[in-house]
Amino acid sequence: MRRVPSFLLLGVAALVCLYPFAWMFLSSFKTNKEIYQPTLFFPSDYEWDSYAGLWSGEYLPFLDYFLHSIFVSGGQALLATFVTAAAGFAFSKMSFRGSGWLFGIAILIILVPKQALAVPLFEWMAWLGWQGNLWSLALPGVASGLGVIFFSQVFRKVPDELVDLAKVEGLSPVRTFVALLPLIAPALMTFCFLHFILSWQEHLLPLLMLDDENLTLPIALAKLRDSSHRIPEAVGMAAATLSLIPVVFLFGLCFRKMKTALVELSLS
Amino acid sequence: MGGKTGFSLLCLLGPFFALWALFWLVPLGMGVDLSLQSPDFRPVHREAVLPEDSAPSSSLTFLDWRNPQEEVEVVAPRYVGLENFERAIADSKFHKALSNTLIYVFGSIFVILPLAFALAVNLHALARIPRGVLVFLLMIPGLALPGVLSTLFYLFFHGRTGALNQYLVIPLGFDPVNWMMDPAFIMPSLIIQAVWRWTGLVTLFFLCGLEAIPRWQFEVARIEGVGPWMRMRSILFPGVRHLAVFAAVFLVVDGFAAFSGAYNLLGGSGGILDSGLLLVTYVYQVAFPGGSGRFDFPGAAAMSLLVAPVTAFLLFLLLQARKTFFPR
Known about the structure:
The complex is a heterodimer of chains A (268) and B (328).
Chain A: H1 4-27, H2 32-35, H3 49-55, H4 62-93, H5 99-107, H6 118-128, H7 135-138, H8 145-157, H9 160-168, H10 173-180, H11 185-200, H12 204-209, H13 217-226, H14 233-265
Helix pairs in contact in A: 1-14, 3-14, 4-8, 4-11, 11-14, 13-14
Chain B: H1 3-35, E1 60-63, E2 71-74, H2 83-90, H3 92-124, H4 128-143, H5 146-157, H6 163-169, H7 183-211, H8 215-224, H9 228-256, H10 260-266, H11 279-287, H12 297-325
Antiparallel strand pairs in B: 1-2
Helix pairs in contact in B: 1-12, 2-12, 3-7, 3-9, 4-7, 5-10, 7-9, 9-12, 11-12
């Protein structure tokens, strides 16, 4: 009996998190009139029209936008993971003059996020002539201050003996770093996944940087809603469902490793 | 430090600092430079970008945003000192955006952290498999695009017949709330959206912190007959303190950068009476006014730079709070 409130709390929380998304998926089959009745859960019949419309690019080249998002987020997340892991390794496992000072200026980046620098970043990209290019979106997020902090914490947990052993064996620090990577695989996956989500959800920079033929998913979804009077709401719902699938899939893959990494990290 | 170590350092730190300089320091410098210029000088059009080096200082080529072909002679000083900052500080809409953002950040942190802690403690009591399944479910809103969350809010939760009114407000005996139109409810509605989005992730953090607590601590507490409050204070809180600080930093940084949710929910405006105007939205409005007005990049840059000290101060307070409440 004592556990009833506990189950109630968890049950309500799970319901609040799951039900709207189930409603969203089922709404991709509904007519506008049905969607405007939020308490209606099941559609009257199941037609895959809105998915077919997205696939064939009837409303906008959805498939292209989808691939752009995968490219930008995947590229940015992978690059960010290895670049910040290397920096974190250097900061926590190598001693050199000015390391504290360098660490300080590296994490200054947290104070002025790239969203706050959107306007000058936009001008700078225009000057470089990279406007509209997907790299102009993928590269600015790679240098992550949180990543440097995260990985220097992670490498602090790796025993110094391993690094000394590598030194005795005659491995250079770079080789040592590469050899240690499998040891911190859970942390690498965790960071890669979190960075992927943040980049996947980025809205402001693509809004500024990209041309119309080079958009990413968040903008595409906003566009679908923008002209919602012409495009059926069900299409927006179908696009929203599709945008969720890769992230949920990745999360499923990383879930166990993520928990391992976080448990280890909290033991400091 | 031998040459070989130096080379290794270059390989390890080089990529980070190259990207750091190219995509953070340069834009930051440009932002500072931009914030000191007159907004009448050199408005850059999205398609028409002026060559940087050909701008003489006394008589300037001025590109009008409405018809980029037309060249207008303008005699205006290029640098105006701190005028843009003064303009931003005196701007009542900027104050509104700043205070809204602070309410948004603190409101969401003060709801999310306790809620996530309560959820994590209750999850911790469950068996492994239901625990994993439930955490996974709680994470789903955090995985979705903020735009999707806004759409769901717009269509599902809000409105007179929306779920919030039907399942919560009316059963409790209140009048249905007009969530998007009533200025008193726009900010709570944005905060609810943030809570819905991030509570799952923070719960996952806390749960991992709790799982890392060694079993013997709970055993000792049980044998000693320690009460629930003592158990909470001496075992559970210390278990999650590092992750709590990390989560709070993450939420502060994310809250200040919040754009997408409010942009989608309110269609790029600040909502009725600007009650949902957030900083990034306002900076975006100033830089790219839709339809009317002039691109005011310098004003926008000055506002962006004014935010950095606020964030720095908040993060400093957070770290101080950690030292006060959780001394080692």
